[in-house]
UniProtKB/TrEMBL annotation:
Entry's transmembrane regions: 52-74, 94-117
Pfam families registered for this protein in UniProt: ActD
Domain of life: Bacteria
Upper lineage: Bacteria, Pseudomonadati, Pseudomonadota, Alphaproteobacteria, Acetobacterales
Record flagged with keyword Membrane: yes
Keywords, in A-Z order: Membrane, Transmembrane, Transmembrane helix
Signal peptide start and end residues: none
Native source species: Falsiroseomonas selenitidurans
InterPro entries: ActD
Name of protein: DUF3341 domain-containing protein
């Protein structure tokens, strides 16, 4: 069963025009692939700023707080040892480990947040079966239409794409 239609374009403008027409015709499950960022396509696809930065900050602060709290609890309550007259709660001694753990947790949070938000690792997608799709990172532009629902079929997609003169249109299985 065909689940995707992949149209190949030579330039960004016809791909964006086809994307605009697909959105106007009611297609919602579609994606664009290009060798460089195409801001108008991103806007039409509803791309927005990623929350990965906020996830990293939250994870970093949580890790730093946990590291500092652990050091404080161990030095002040669990095993208080007065060495050389230093105070039990010694802020300068706690900061290096707190900083390192905070950075580690921020990096791990950014990685895990990015993987979760991108629904990765995704080992296969139907567009990978297209023979020319590797050119999406070189010099070609692709528009992928997911054939989902009774109103969206391959014939309707072909009629929609024809005025934009794609180089090729490939039907891909699920």
């Amino acid at each position: 069963m065909t689940t995707h239609l992949l149209a190949e374009f030579e330039a960004a403008e016809p791909m964006v025009a086809a994307l605009r027409a697909a959105r106007a015709a009611g297609w919602r499950k579609l994606d664009a692939h290009a060798p460089f960022p195409v801001p108008e396509a991103a806007k039409l696809l509803g791309a927005h700023e990623s929350p990965v930065g906020w996830i990293a900050i939250a994870a970093g602060l949580a890790g730093a707080a946990l590291a500092y709290g652990t050091q404080w609890w161990l030095s002040v309550h669990a095993w208080p040892i007065n060495v050389g007259g230093r105070p039990l709660h010694a802020l300068p001694a706690f900061l290096p480990a707190t900083t390192i753990v905070g950075i580690l947790w921020a990096a791990a949070g950014a990685l895990l947040g990015m993987l979760a938000l991108n629904r990765l690792p995704r080992l296969h997608h139907p567009v990978f079966a297209a023979s020319q799709f590797h050119r999406a990172s070189e010099d070609r532009f692709f528009l992928s239409l997911e054939l989902d629902g009774p109103d969206f079929d391959a014939a309707a997609a072909h009629r929609l794409l024809a005025p934009h003169r794609p180089l090729s249109v490939a039907a891909l299985g699920g």
